[in-house]
Request: fold
Amino acid sequence: MTGKRILSTLAHRLAILAYVAFALFPLYWLLKVSVTPNNLLYSEGIRMWPSQTSFEHFEFVLRHSEFPTFFKNSLIVSGSTAVIVTVLASLAGYAMSRFNFRGKYWIVTLMLLTQMFPLVMLVAPIFKMLSPLGLTNSLTGLVIVYTAFNVPFATFLMQSFFDGIPKDLEEAAMIDGATQFVAFRQIILPLTLPGIAATLGFVFTAAWSELLFSLMLISGNDAATFPVGLLSFVSKFSVDFGQMMAAGVMALIPACLFFLLIQRYLVQGLTAGAVKG
Amino acid sequence: MASIDIAHVQKSYGIHPVLHGVDLEIKDGEFVVLVGPSGCGKSTLLRMIAGLEAVTEGEIRIAGKRVNDLAPKDRDIAMVFQSYALYPHMSVEKNMSYSLRLRKTAKDKIASVVAGAASKLGLDPLMERRPKALSGGQRQRVAMGRAIVRQPKAFLFDEPLSNLDARLREQMRAEIKKLHQDLGATSIYVTHDQIEAMTLADRIVAMHGGIIQQVGSPLELYDNPANLFVAGFIGSPGMNFFDGRYMVSGENGNFVLTGGVVLPLGSNANLADGSRATLGIRPEHVVLGAEGPNALKATVDLVEPTGFGIIVHLKLGPVAFKAFTLDRRFLGMHGDVAVRLPVPNLHFFNEEGRKV
Reply:
């Protein structure tokens, strides 16, 4: 290797390192603050790591705050949304990919249209719609809203996965004696697992971190999801940074676990659909 | 096993017609090959028989029963796809038994039938593998195995060999023929490869532009093509064509080629005096190095040895044509050569391209 090549490799690595450090620093800071005891939080100035660490914030958050409730609510809302959206998107994506039906063009256009508006615009109308139905301040309401917002994109995502699976396969199954639905369930669906995992992951994280509608539709702590719950650490006169950060760290856990579980499919999935489609 | 009747079948996509009224009767146990260039409608016709495409007009009957509105699964046919269409997430054994499992066949029956098919096709050591871990030829065999396990009324083959290399294609072609001899099942085979059509078929159906051009045994189509399309499509290297005019002089007919060369025919062809026509002759019938009264002078353009024989590219004035010979003396040939087009081997096609 010549000197020039070593130098360029070094520069390349350094650039990547700088980028990764920049992206991960907020997470690092979150972790750092969460383990800094209250008495050191303001007294030590800016240090990369506190002179003393403790888990007191974690203990407080778990024992004395309503964080477990928020956490449970978030899990219910995100999990249900992810499952419902994926089921709907699989069926719709399959129809989009395989069937020709009247109004298909308009349905696709309308679905695309929903992706074009900033969600803030919809807060008032949604509230107005859900309020008489008794769906404000309820997890069900949140699930419905999140599902509605995520189905279009998830449908497009699933459609691209179905497009990547040759039509011959279900035709072979149909000749072998399957109905179209059995062919879908036994042949096509198992082959779309990477796509399903990608969609599940995408929708789960989207719902997990959603703040706007959660904030607008939920009042009170019983049905609050954790992004809203985090705000409860902000009181009129002070912010409990330590506790807030501890809660944040714990909120990261399910998302991390989820991605760890599906990342194998995710990489395969996101590229597979793109290249073949 | 069953006969298949196709009566006045038409197909159009929107306003675009792809099949213009096809009539065909396939007898029980017959091996019929649909052959033609891509886009001629042969695959569409096959898919209509399978039930994968709707019939726009006309009727398809399998074993005398109208199947136009039956789902593929209720037609009791098996199909081998060009892409093999093996289920990637199932082992070879599961692939082959899928149709039987869907029909809730008893487990021991499935096992024995699948084992029988596997040994027939030499798949025994591969039963636990996934399609991904198989070679092209093995995948092809699995696709065939999947078709034969349930003894359907008919086998449909949609260009099953086009993804294989030349050597393997030859081998599988023979295996398919042997399989048909063993099982005697009604088979419809789609291909664009005229060699496959010639070697496999009991009867060939030559198609072009959504219309059946000729139906007959392989040699009928080869020796007696009904029109210019069939004459040009069947045979490799293909038949030579010369445009010209038919002239009568007294008792005899002459064919005047476009370049002005006169070919005395000795007798009368079934053509009107002075009418435009096309003369066809197969390359193997062109006689090379034949001096004599009726010899024509051609120029050698190119010599292609195939090992088995030699293809000589010739020019008669501006018209290019080919000769095929087994005589290796012609290998080093160049310059001018005397050729003869023996009258008994000539085919004449009238202005509409029909054989006379």
Notes: Chain B touches chain A at residues 50-52, 71-73, 77-79, 81-83, 85-89, 98-99, 102-103, 146 (CB under 8 Å). Residues 4-233 of chain B form a domain with the Rossmann fold fold (CATH 3.40.50.300).
